[in-house]
Specification:
By secondary structure, the protein is α+β, with helices and mostly antiparallel strands. The chain contains nine helices and 18 strands. Strands 1, 3, 4, 5, 11, 12, 13, 14 and 15 form a nine-stranded mixed beta sheet that branches. Strands 2, 6, 7, 8, 9, 10, 16, 17 and 18 form a nine-stranded mixed beta sheet that branches. Helix 2 packs antiparallel against helix 3 and helix 2 crosses helix 4. The radius of gyration is 21 Å and the shape is elongated. The two termini are 16 Å apart.
Length: 399
Amino acid sequence: MWKRWFLFILFPVLAAKDTSENMDSKAISSAIAAFSAKFCNELEKDKSVVSSPLSAEFVLGLLTLGTTDPAHSELITALGVADDDSIRSTFSSVSSKLKAIKGVTLNVANKVYIQDGDYELQPQIKDDAVKVFDAAMEKLNFGDNVSAVKTINGWVESKTNQKIKDLLPEDSVDSSTRLVLVNALYFKGTWKDKFDPIATREQPFHINANTTVEIPMMYNEADYGFGFSETLQAQLLEIPYVGEEASMIVVLPQEIEGLNDVIAKLAAGHDLLADIENMYKTKVQVTLPKFKIETTIDLKELLPKLGINAIFHKENSGLTKLLNTDELLYVSKAVQKAFIEVNEEGAEAAAATAMGVACYSAMIDFEPVPVFLADRPFLAAIFSEGAPYFISTFRGEQE
């Protein structure tokens, strides 16, 4: 029994026919958290969702280094970094930290697929792809869309432990595709203190103020990070994985229908990291649902809400520093797919991101042992060193 979290983002980028400062660790975590909060605030508000804004950031970060204004300014602003050198230092640091986390498996992989023939990445973006993002390169004939999609899907499957299969439909690429950028994140961990399956039982969950359903709820009493945010009016719980270098943070609103308000406050700039730093270790009686969520996100609709517009424009996208071609490039499609399963043993999660380029012809009275009863919609995120890697909202739906 595992918790699984999978994600894929596709950004086909199409071609038309005719003073820097390095960010410190806290600043990087804050920038990732801020982007993640704004990202999640644009997701559906009436059902459970799962996403990995960080996976999107890997692709957007690489794309930023291949753009000029107006796209470049939009991307820099949305990602919350100062300039290209900050992009380089940020993602080099994040990649290194991902690889160094102990007790869990947390891997990141990037790949650049380029149209077969004379097409090549420009020297600077190629250097950045390899040195900053540790990306592999491969030539593909996108005109043979069946074979190309099979290759890309196969890579995604291999990097997500076979959890994301047949992700791209065959019409995702064609003879006008020039470039596909892919990121894959994979996570697998075991709770430091497992939930006993014998204690799991059907209990009421309040979907909203008027609707209650019976769902499987896990129970455990152990030492956890615990706290309360006055601004968010929510309890916070930190459930560590083996090694205690990664954990799940659960944000549980006081009000049954308080989750959307919590997310809106996070998107408006509330510092969740400060709330997390103020948590304290204590014995807590925890009741948490078992659940599965699958989500498909149209990023071509979501990203403009974050101020990222130009990359989708055919005639003035700013994607001028990617390939050794005079063709105009633009992002034609952006989609993210994700899956999460939470249960007694631990967690397994995966994420992948791709871009393709083609041609354009209140105070709480706590009990002696605090009670954390997640019987209403809540937010959950996998954190390490203050940065969220996967985020989910659970609102009570069951398969």
